[in-house]
């Protein structure tokens, strides 16, 4: 299921919610896959379109236990306005191409960032630091940037990917 765009958005929303002092809850990726109507469910989508949908419709993201992930596009399930959940009041879109210091600042100030990347070279990842420099012209995958490390010889971003536990380092 090509739902990386939904995973990155939900990861960012639930992180910001927890950083704001609320209990960290796993929010429903499936709700975004099924209900973000201008996206294409498991056939792909855009984090910015999903965030715009959440802000404009004032839809509350419910918990993963209320709306479990199925890894396929389904029919949108609606919840009453009185049902608990997390809403998106605001967000910003920024192009950080060639501006890694600015991106680090946003990450520190606001928390994890939903980003789009050129992940063609990631398909063959076996471990360590990916040293392929992404092009800003081509993006084909969405991830959640959760940190960075500049203390070693090779600085790197720490990302949360949606490809399962067999990909990446824990």
UniProtKB/TrEMBL annotation:
Domain Peptidase C1A papain C-terminal: 1-170
Superkingdom of source: Eukaryota
Name used for this protein in its record: Cathepsin O
Family of this protein: Belongs to the peptidase C1 family.
UniProt cross-references to Pfam families, sorted A to Z: Peptidase_C1 (PF00112)
Biological process per Gene Ontology, one example term: proteolysis
GO molecular function: cysteine-type peptidase activity
Encoding gene, per UniProt annotation: CTSO
């Amino acid at each position: 299921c090509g739902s990386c765009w939904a995973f990155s958005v939900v990861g960012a929303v639930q992180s910001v919610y927890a950083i704001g002092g609320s209990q960290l809850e796993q929010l429903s990726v499936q709700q975004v896959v099924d209900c973000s109507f201008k996206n294409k469910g498991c056939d792909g989508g855009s984090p910015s379109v999903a965030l715009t949908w959440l802000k404009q419709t004032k839809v509350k993201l419910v918990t993963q236990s209320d709306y479990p992930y199925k890894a396929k596009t389904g029919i949108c399930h609606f919840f009453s306005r009185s049902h608990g959940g997390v809403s998106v009041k605001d967000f910003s879109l920024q192009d950080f191409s060639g501006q890694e210091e600015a991106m680090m600042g946003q990450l520190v100030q606001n928390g994890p960032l939903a980003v789009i990347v050129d992940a063609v070279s990631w398909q063959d990842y076996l471990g360590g630091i990916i040293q392929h420099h992404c092009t800003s012209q081509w993006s084909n995958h969405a991830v959640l940037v959760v940190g960075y490390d500049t203390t070693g010889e090779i600085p790197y971003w720490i990302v949360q990917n949606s490809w399962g536990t067999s990909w990446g380092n824990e």
